[in-house]
Design a protein that fits this description.
With 193 residues, this protein is of the alpha/beta class. The chain has seven helices and five strands, in the order αβαβααβαβααβ.
Length: 193
C-alpha cells in the first residue's frame, strides 16, 4: 500500500476505483433516472405553406434537442416563397420543407400548436396530444394589399418575429411530455407571448 492511500478506508476512496480493486464501492447509483422523452410538437395551420413552416424552422434552429418539431396543414398547398425569404433573412433555410397533412407525418404528437384560426377550428383529433391555440396573422392575406414587394415583406417579417418569440419559450412552457396522455386544450392570448 502506498503512503497516499494508507489509512484511507474503503468508503473514502473513489467508488469506481474501489470497485475495480475489489473494495466496497459504497453507495453507487446503479440505475440512474431515465431521460424523459423529448416532447414531439406539431405546428398546424391550414396550408402548411407559411406560418407553420416558419414555426418548424424556428424550432429546429432554437430548440434542437429539446423539442422534436414538425409541421402540417389541414389543406396543404405550395410552400410560400416570401416565407422562405423571411426565414432566410434570419439564416434559416426552409426551402426544402414540403407541405403535408398531419397523417403524412406518421407520428404521434405530445403537443399540437395551431397557428391560425382555421386550423384550430378544423384541427383533427390527435389522441393524447395537448392542443394549444396560438393564432398569428396571415401574411399572404395582409400582403395582398401591399404596394411593393418590400411592403409585403413587412408583414412576413413581423409574423416571423412573433412566431420566433413563441417558439423560443416552448422548452420552458412544455415540460417533457409522457406519451399517451389524455387530450387537453389551451389558448395563448396576446399576453402569453
Amino acid at each position: 500500500m502506498d503512503g497516499a492511500s494508507a489509512g484511507a478506508g474503503p468508503r473514502s476512496q473513489d467508488p469506481a476505483s474501489a470497485h475495480l480493486r475489489g473494495g466496497d464501492p459504497g453507495p453507487v447509483d446503479r440505475h440512474p433516472a431515465a431521460t424523459p422523452p423529448i416532447p414531439r410538437v406539431l405546428f398546424l395551420c391550414t396550408g402548411n405553406s407559411c406560418r407553420s413552416q416558419m414555426a418548424e424552422g424556428w424550432a429546429h434552429a432554437l430548440c434542437a434537442g429539446r423539442i422534436e418539431a414538425h409541421s402540417a396543414g389541414t389543406h396543404p398547398h405550395a410552400l410560400n416563397a416570401r416565407a422562405v425569404r423571411a426565414m432566410r433573412e434570419c439564416g434559416i433555410d426552409i426551402s426544402q420543407h414540403r407541405p403535408k397533412r398531419p397523417e403524412d407525418v406518421g407520428l404521434r404528437f405530445d403537443v399540437v400548436i395551431t397557428v391560425c384560426d382555421s386550423a384550430h377550428e378544423s384541427c383533427p383529433a390527435l389522441p393524447g396530444a395537448l392542443t394549444i391555440h396560438a393564432p398569428f396573422d396571415d401574411p399572404p392575406r395582409l400582403a395582398e394589399r401591399a404596394a411593393t414587394e418590400e411592403d409585403a415583406m413587412t408583414h412576413y417579417r413581423r409574423v416571423r418575429d412573433e412566431i420566433r418569440s413563441l417558439v423560443a419559450g416552448l422548452p420552458d412552457l412544455i415540460p417533457a411530455c409522457p406519451r399517451d396522455t389524455g387530450s387537453r386544450t389551451g389558448t395563448f392570448g396576446e399576453g402569453d407571448r
